[in-house]
């Protein structure tokens, strides 16, 4: 019995000394300023939706670099271009880790995907695979036909709806589902070589596509802030709102669909070529030929679908909403297309770089409504400094791109939609405009996203006249979610341009 008390006293003394050591050490550090916090939960009650706006208001009060405590996890919020530049230049390697989250552990194959894996050999291999083999410029060039066909199908479906409208030839259309379907189809065809939507799709494939879209939507919903990530003791006591059980269920359903896709391609390879190596441009085929495990392939498919589908669709929806509220800018973009591309053929991907005003429109939409208002969290692998403040090892870093891109100290008239602001700029807005992140963990799909968004918007503007459904401006309220969707799906009045019907729309 005496031995037990000796152990207890020794352990207590050690913990007290450790606490005093940490207290003394932290008192010598120049930590970022922080609001008053509550015991145990820290600042969790301060973080309300929309999170990017809440963090911006705190930044206005405490400065461009400030700290919060999410339960047991220290967090530093970065809201200025200079501090962001520090994160992605001198601290790029130090901040290359991702914090380990419950969603990634359960739904993203134990955090082994390119978006969630810790910095190291496995992540570098996935990054090399993605940037040099799957989403490299030459690979994107080989999938050009896929993007062109899907954009043409979108334009044709809108033309059919508009031309079937009585009298005026002007139809009310809901755009969100159409844009999501198009983005999903582009990526699925690049991954597996099959269409999962539309008349050309098999009924079974269409069912799988609907199920997969539901799974992706649930993954986005469940990947938000989870109290269990910051208060681990809660996970042992209660599963808040059944969140962890839902994650497990979504992970199982997702895995069944993904494994089915891999098995189908694997059997197709065996039937067509026996043991001979198959040369294919499809992502699954390539990864199978390189010997990647099924779980790594499934995680990679899921990451690319999650990262690429909603982000492109959301960007196009926000841009169209802004253009509907600024018809003079829509007309100017249409005039540029008529002048550069003409009215006798549909815009092509090769034309996009010749359309600077369209690029300015896209940049301005990304500035006002970035698809990732808070960049994917980073984690410090060792002590570092940001903005003159000490940042301890193991701190989560959140870069508030939304706040930086709307900062009146950085942008003139920051809340207004002004594509002309980019005219004459020579890439000097690198750390003021961060829709795809920066540094080694920036989004590897930026090339694909730019192609899909640019080509789709150009085709929609070139082929149709667009009007609001009422005299009231389109509601630009933000919904909740990782990709900051519009609160209400975009609806607009769509009418084929007379000058485009005979030579373009009717021939699609």
TrEMBL record:
SUPFAM superfamilies documented for this protein: Cytochrome P450 (SSF48264)
Residues passing through the membrane, by range: 6-23
Domain of life where this protein originates: Eukaryota
Membrane topology: Single-pass membrane protein
Subcellular location: Membrane
Keyword annotations of the record: Heme, Iron, Membrane, Metal-binding, Monooxygenase, Oxidoreductase, Transmembrane, Transmembrane helix
InterPro entries: Cyt_P450 (IPR001128), Cyt_P450_CS (IPR017972), Cyt_P450_E_grp-I (IPR002401), Cyt_P450_sf (IPR036396), Plant_Cytochrome_P450_Monoox (IPR050651)
GO MF entry, a single one: oxidoreductase activity, acting on paired donors, with incorporation or reduction of molecular oxygen
PROSITE patterns listed in its UniProt record: CYTOCHROME_P450
Pfam families reported for this sequence: p450
Keyword Heme: yes
Residues binding heme: 443
Reported cofactor(s): heme
Any one annotated GO CC term: membrane
Record family assignment: Belongs to the cytochrome P450 family.
PANTHER family found in the cross-reference section: CYTOCHROME P450 82C3-RELATED (PTHR47947), CYTOCHROME P450, FAMILY 81, SUBFAMILY D, POLYPEPTIDE 5 (PTHR47947:SF62)
Protein name: Cytochrome P450
Organism of derivation: Corymbia citriodora subsp. variegata
